[in-house]
Design a protein that fits this description.
By secondary structure, this protein is of the alpha/beta class. It has a single domain, classed as Glutaconate Coenzyme A-transferase (3-Layer(aba) Sandwich), CATH 3.40.1080.10. The chain is about 25% helix and about 25% strand. It contains 7 helices and 12 strands. It starts with a strand and ends in a 6-residue tail after the last helix.
């Protein structure tokens, strides 16, 4: 039997190279793989392109990775939120690049990569600065903008339950972008709150099949971004 369990978060992200494209699951704090992100900070890979819904909050998790100077570009939908301070300051200073993508388009670009679809057309950004320089085409009398797929070298994901084969379930809205990110990355690394034996997850309940997962890290008591921020914590 294939066993995808890794002994530690550090080992799971040890081969992320400088310049990698990394997808990070999470919708704000919901579903954010804090332990894997902090392990990547400790690992030290630089010049990363990160794909996430937002740019992190406070000084932990995704925001801490950015603050540590390891990220050269963000691809996201919400570069600023009520508790984000790291990314906005760096962006205004010209120290980090931003590709702004509407949320539905972001999800579909990731999904398209997992499905092997190199591009698709959407009317979402027609007539806006986000459509500048992009190919357009008319369908049934309406203009559409072509958007390319979004692929990644690595995806860092948080799930609720996993088995050693990599089959996953998620905790409600903490699922968010994670299943499609698992499909769109060459190497998918997952931290799980509960690791069960193979066969213990009802096949009808599996959200992400193990074929899309490469490494599993058992994190039975994961920290939560909001809790760390409320306590005034920072990392490292």
């Amino acid at each position: 039997m294939i066993n995808k369990k890794c002994p530690s978060a550090a080992e799971a992200v040890a081969d992320v190279p400088d310049g990698a494209v990394v997808m990070v699951g999470g919708f704000g704090a919901s579903g954010s793989p804090i332990e894997l992100i902090h392990a990547l900070i400790d690992q030290g890979a630089k010049d990363l392109t990160l794909i996430n819904n937002n740019t992190g909050n406070g000084e932990v998790g995704l925001a801490a990775l950015i603050a540590n100077g390891q990220v050269s570009k963000m691809i996201c939908s919400f570069p600023r939120s009520s508790q984000s301070k790291v990314f906005p300051a760096l962006y205004r200073a010209g120290k980090i690049e931003l590709e702004l993508v509407p949320q539905g388009t972001l999800a579909e670009r990731i999904r398209a990569a997992g499905a092997g679809i190199p591009a698709f057309y959407t009317p979402t950004t027609v007539g806006t600065v986000l459509a500048e320089g992009k190919e357009t085409r008319e369908f049934d009398g309406r203009t559409y903008v072509m958007e390319p797929w979004l692929k990644a070298d690595f995806a860092l994901i948080k799930c609720e339950v996993a088995d050693p084969l990599g089959n996953l379930t998620f905790n409600k809205t903490a699922r968010n972008f994670s299943p499609i990110m698992c499909m769109a990355a060459t190497t998918t690394v997952v931290q799980t709150r509960k690791l069960v034996a193979a066969g213990d997850i009802d096949p009808e309940h599996v959200v992400t099949p193990g074929i899309f997962v490469n490494r599993i890290v058992d994190v039975p008591s994961p920290v939560h971004e909001d809790t760390l921020i409320a306590a005034g914590r920072s990392y490292p």
